[in-house]
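Hi, here's the filled form for the chain we discussed.

Project: internal
Contact: R.S.
Residues: 429
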Amino acid sequence: MTTALIVAALVIAGLILLNAFFSAAETALTGASRARMATLEREGDHAAKRVNALNEDRERMIGAVLLGANLVQIAASAMAAGIFTGLYGPTWGTIITTAVLTPLLLVFGEVGPKTVAITFADNIARFVAGPVQWMVRILSPIVIAVQWIVNNSLKLFGIRVDETVDVLRAARAEIGGAIELHAEEGGVEAETKQRLLGALDLSELEVADVMIHRKSIKSLDIDLPPREIIAQAMSSPHTRLPLWQGDPDNIVGILHARDLLKAIAEHGRDNFDIHAIKREPWFTPMQTSAEDQLAEFLRRREHFAIVVDEYGALMGLVTLEDILEEIVGDIKDEHDIAVQGVRPQPDGSVNVDGTVPIRDLNRMMNWDLPDDEAVTVAGLVIHEAQAIPDPGQRFAFHGYRFQVLRRQRNQLTALRVEREEADEGMEGG
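And the returned structure, exactly as it came back:
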């Protein structure tokens, strides 16, 4: 009798260890870094390759592991119940089985293994991948049947788990979350954080989000006298200037400062032909993603594009520098000035022109004003107020206070913005 008890106890201990294996395997395989596993696979690591293969059909892998764990727990419970029932009777046997086996399974079969697996997820995932692969193959028919039952049961409640998931978007969100977390913990400097997040956000931005608005474009009338063109071009901090004819919205070419200087050297200040040196403008839709526009800039070896809407109307212009600044922050040279239209005040508030892009203000002031619903500061206030406010009206939203300073017709031309200690909701008055 004693020998049988010892054998049964050893078998139960073995089942608990097997349950620990399943718990650790599930946690490690789902928590392992996909990026590191992909890198290791490229380097020839066969264990990492098995991990990646299992994660390609994660639902089936998890189903097999959970099935194995449940079978082990049932076996351990049945054996322990049989032992204690034989010794103490049905009632006390059940109570003792529950009192003994539950903490053993919880501590040594679940919590402990999962804690270790979380800490060493990558290494443990590579270690358990081989056995789990064999188990998935053996239990695959049962798992497939369970999956079918579960999926069809969920459909009764309107839940579909087989719909296409935007894996790329999910991956970007995961990476972005990791960057934010490390920044909060002090592992990433603020500037580095902005660069990393800027690179991730590039695909989410459209050209309209980063362009210079048409009202802020510095352009030249192509019909001006040569000396006037020279004077205006020399007074501009930009090397490329749009040329218009008849109407400022009618862009007919691009003047490059280098071409202008060459023409002056060859023909003099009064005799060069602006039409001969102008470059053809490149028009791009405002809905183009910033990522695609960057790729086009690099492919065409261009730095400058005119932005138009779906009807071909001028909306603004975008440069290579504008897009790169979304990644690396402001790129300053000897001709650059601070963000135009932003004037910090001694009391900590900021006076801004309504046309100032929210993203530029956020970068300059290290703020976090939302830019999902509006591009400019004025647009944000109008969106939140659901009206065009009058001068003097004040609002508070998203943790900031806004005061309308000037309005011209239907446009908010100047506002005062400052941070508040806590959200006080929106107030008009």
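Let me know if anything looks off before we file it.
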